[in-house]
């Protein structure tokens, strides 16, 4: 029984919401009863070159798995984000850019966006980029990152954006995996006043490549910092685009042609290249953007996500621009120069819709109410969160202090794999409960199943699955279809497995309770514990490592590493620092362990399997509830682990 307060629709009606609760229920039921008719209609929210007649061809059965949407239609994603708006909104701002330094800003109209993207697309073509080639984008949050994505889409190239916080090793793996001959980057990125040497990371990555010959690196000059230049391979962005033509025809793409790859962590060591295709993804990003954020003409919308993550793809670039919205891109961090920054930006641009991650809210809460209250925030009408469960405390603060009890909060649950939001309140239509992502979006059929795959009814807790496809669903793991089938469709028959667990309450609301696999969520960033372990064991004196998450006030989950050293070696503070550096070099700063505990052994079953459940309990300090340890090969190891637990 959930005792949290329910926020009533009446209390938080967005003044001109698209749907009310009755309408939501009716539309939802229709979308489930007759998905063909529903999606046939919704597919029209974007422009098609050749209209589709076929809606979907889907089978979730492991042996015959395939997912196709609108598959006889043709379109271009870039044309949907730019060209279609030119007749009516050429002079409207498409992108507002706010630099790390509060005095840096830019307004890019749809007309200018068109020209910049065409020039970039022509430059790519000149470098030999063709339809279906993979182009890697490793950029700061600057408008050129969006230009690059759209330019690829325009000419039918598949973009693979790699988060600018990833290391050169992580970048090299992704370039290799996509056999990407072209990388687009900047000399340096700037966040919170600190610079990161992106171009230098590309140089290092180029030396680490095993599969690919990298022939072109396009460099945007962001800071003018010193960089090493390789003649014949490196090109300044300005030199390439300045003389390029302002027009570039759009490639006509099949609905099921790939639009992008985005790597995400799973339970094995190697990140998966999640592949999204053109038609279904664009329909779904566009439609969910409009309804979930209750977007209306003239709204100023700001999503704080980096374009290196799926949120940046769907809800900084494609969703808003497909709707002809004004989307704000922010280069900096919420606490620089001070903790009032976000709200100052809201006031400066009169932001109406603000979408961020719980970790940012928790980080800002620490500074108290004053940095918020000294700003007006009068323009805000809707708040959103994504990426991890939001604890009710943070929700209340966001609702009461930031939103002044005037703005509904949409707690949106989704994944890189889902392409767009699947569980969410609709503003004005759904009563809110702090901490719950509430109800499914139209056309979405969630279910909870037990570990054998039996569907649980009514109030229940279990594995969160989806029984039916939606247009924005990923189609495959790039060049690894087997992995796609095995990861998402092998455990439970005829269902898409999310890897999350959830609870459903008496009102049918969903509450995400965590992951079922060895994936942890650090500050809204998804990391496989196996990835961090492989980074740590690269150190010559590490024999074995096991990484688990533990509750962390700001990050949601912190990283706790148990490390066994080779015989005769001892742990030290200096070694901790070396190991942290390994994780930083192999993956990036987000993967650096918060706590490292050296241990002579790990809790293993007699068959050699690490019992992570015990490690998680030790890391969280929950010693009373360790469960059955009698199956361990050496039960005494548990005492040693608990006695030597490291507290930060
Ligand atoms: O565990 C869920 C959590 O983030 C995971 C997906 O991570 P990623 O693919 O990086 O995409 C993040 C942005 C869409 C999910 O499996 N998650 C995401 N949104 C929520 C959430 N957990 C609870 N509540 C949410 N609103």
Automatic annotation (TrEMBL):
- The name of this protein is Acetyl-coenzyme A synthetase
Q: Could you tell me which residue ranges the AMP-dependent synthetase/ligase domain spans?
A: 88-466
The lineage's top-level taxon is: Bacteria
Q: Does the keyword Transmembrane helix apply?
A: no
Q: Which UniProt keywords are present, listed alphabetically?
A: Acetylation, ATP-binding, Ligase, Magnesium, Metal-binding, Nucleotide-binding
The broad enzyme category this protein falls into is ligase
Q: Where does Mg(2+) bind?
A: 537, 539, 542
Q: Where is the AMP-binding enzyme C-terminal domain?
A: 531-609
Q: Which cofactor does it need?
A: Mg(2+)
Please give the residue positions where the record annotates the modification N6-acetyllysine.
609
**What organism is this sequence from?**
Spartinivicinus marinus
Q: In UniProt terms, what function does this protein have?
A: Catalyzes the conversion of acetate into acetyl-CoA (AcCoA), an essential intermediate at the junction of anabolic and catabolic pathways. AcsA undergoes a two-step reaction. In the first half reaction, AcsA combines acetate with ATP to form acetyl-adenylate (AcAMP) intermediate. In the second half reaction, it can then transfer the acetyl group from AcAMP to the sulfhydryl group of CoA, forming the product AcCoA.
- PTMs per UniProt: Acetylated. Deacetylation by the SIR2-homolog deacetylase activates the enzyme.
Output one GO BP term.
acetyl-CoA biosynthetic process from acetate
Q: Name one GO cellular component term.
A: cytosol
